[in-house]
Fold this protein.
Amino acid sequence: MAIALLGLLAMQIVYLEKMVAMRNSQFSEIVMRSLYSVSTMLEQNETKYFLDKDLAEAEQTYSGISQNSFSFSDRHEATIDTTFSTDAATKPRPANINTLKDLNVKDLNDSYQRKQETLKGQYLYQKSLLNEVILTILNQSSDRPIQERADSATVASYLRSELEFNGLTLPFEFAVKSRSNGVVYKTDGYAPVSQQDVYSQVLFPNDPKNKQNTLCVFFPNKSDYIFSSVKFLVPSLAFTFLLLGVFLYTISVAFKQKKLSEIKNDFINNMTHEFKTPISSISIAAQMLNDDSVRKSPEMLKHVSSVINDETKRLRFQVEKVLQLSLFDRKNATMRLEEEDANASIYSVINTFKLKVEKYGGHINANLDAEDPIINVDRMHFTNVIFNLLDNAVKYRREDVAPELEVTTINPNEDHIQITVADNGIGMTREDLKKIFEKFYRVSTGNRHDVKGFGLGLAYVHKMIDLFGGSIRAESELNKGSKFIITLPLYK
Ligand code: ADP
């Protein structure tokens, strides 16, 4: 599924890229086509300019010199006449054409001859005129200043109409640059970021190379335009990302569940094993009680009863642990908050724990100095919290020194109590310290694999302190020791 999703995503991205590239090349093509048309139109404009100029000059030269020679108006009339006569030749004859028969055929021929002469003269004249114009264009046009040949307003209007004709109604900015002097003129907004955004076309390409000018166009909103034409693909990309996100979430949930069930299985196996030992001890003690010799000896009786007592305590502790685990599965743990003397509860936990610490040659220092120790907690859970912290302090002791534990309580202000459990154990690194309150997090202590644990103890402590409305933090230094500091609100 991951491969399929990633493949789909990659395909969509490639498709998007291709679309953008295609739109870009379409855009360039339209712009270049329009620019070419503008350049052609400017050339035509120039030809018209020279033609008009030449005609005006010719009219001045010829007017009034001779009746027989051609004047500008004559030439026009002649042209009109010719068209008329050509038209007349192709049109059907009118009904009264018979009168022509009466005309003198010789006269007709003469007039025809004259007309033809006139036409020939006109043709030669126009041809020479055009040749003259072409020559002028070739010789003079490149000497005219480019501002006159392609003035800004004309270029703008040609550009606009050509781009619109090709379906591009995007605002544009342009400049005309000459080879020798750089920018000749430009519009106010012409400020392309890179040369890649500029489309250019040589104006009057027949000019000598060193006199050539270039028309440069730049579209400030081009990227928006390109994006707007491919943005319909964005939702499909977003949905694919959403699908990928949901997929990753599902996978992580599945993995978490798997890990959780493995841990639970381990826990249950471990617990069953742990239950078996006290149960068999109690059962042996019960068998011993059946023995008369044991019942008669008060010392033995005392021993057996202490064994039963100890083993029952162990059993209760195990049951407590199972209960602690089940707390995580319930959303709302059942709490019975009540007034509780923190100093007294801590003192009783320390008392039961003392023996265990002393077994390893260490001892617990208790400085329960809080003057106002009354808090609002669930007694059982509070005792478990202190017990878990002390248990960890012993579990993660250093092999080379005897465990020294210190438990203190103070009132940092009149509304709170601060409980500190400190040890001289193996400590933790800064990275581990950040994660120890997470469920199932265990420091990979390497040589400490003999220490049993599920990474639930501190998570449970954290959850309980939260529910009591307090906070917990830890300080630690590797190979020096750790300190857990709990702050709880006082009962008011
Ligand atoms: P568990 O003890 O079952 O592994 P905990 O939630 O009680 O789980 O502790 C999480 C981790 O924090 C432990 O694996 C241990 O490495 C580290 N840790 C907890 N308390 C101490 C301590 N007092 N000193 C050093 N490391 C500790």
About this structure: Residues 392-393, 396, 423, 425-428, 436, 441-443, 445, 453-459, 482 surround adenosine-5'-diphosphate (CB under 6 Å). The longest helix spans residues 2-62. The two ends are 57 Å apart (CA to CA). The CA atoms of residues 275 and 315 lie 6 Å apart.
